[in-house]
Amino acid sequence: METQSEAREALKVISLMYHDVVEGGAHEQSGFGGADAALYKMEQGQFRKHLRAIAGAVRESPARVFELQADARASRPWLLTFDDGGVSAYTCIAGMLEEFGWRGHFFVTANYVGSPSFLSGAQIKELHRRGHVIGSHSASHPERMSHCSPEEMLREWAESVARLSDIVGERVRVASVPGGFYSARVAKAAARAGIEMLFTSEPTSAGRSVDGCMVLGRYTIRRSTTAEAVAAIAAGRVAPRLKQLLLWNAKKVTKALGGRYYLKARKSLLGQG
To answer: 57 lies in which domain range?
Structure first.
């Protein structure tokens, strides 16, 4: 079975997963459109409250993923990650992080580089120059990455890594899984494409290795997430992290049983179907 090749590691890290930050409810300003994507888009004022709350709850600045080592710190390290590659990474988010002396991880959907509401190549290069981590979020953002063929998975990772590496001028080695559709096969394809660190949407702080690729979970931050809740997660408190894990496991069962019908039902409820 696939899980037999997965080795548990000592690495523990709390990773927060954000998406876009917009202004005045203009959700189309940055990243993907639609009601589903809007659930993860945050107003600038709200995002600033989040950052201030986190800064008051943790002593250390967020780490960058390749600085992590098992048992490297007395306290558990934490990371800030941002999915999709929306233009707000450059126009808003990076500057706000830098006010705190922080750096983030921006996972870019490579086929959308230069498209309206997404980062341009020049903006990606500048973010990299300023010390932020650039990673892959696949090439095309398939709806169900874990249901792609092995060849499709490899192509999604390899093409995105090649394009982003060319933009930043060095090999891109980190990625995040689009849509939360993770499986060990997804990680194995990522490893074949040269990805060394792969972030999922599983709310866990435990890392595991799949074919030499370190797989790390993340805690999802939505528009509805309060500043107090995100600060508690960043500080490592058990209750809010356990709540996310229980909800995630229930959602995982629904995804597995429903497949594409899960996506259709979700879009219908959000007025997209």
So the answer is: 2-237
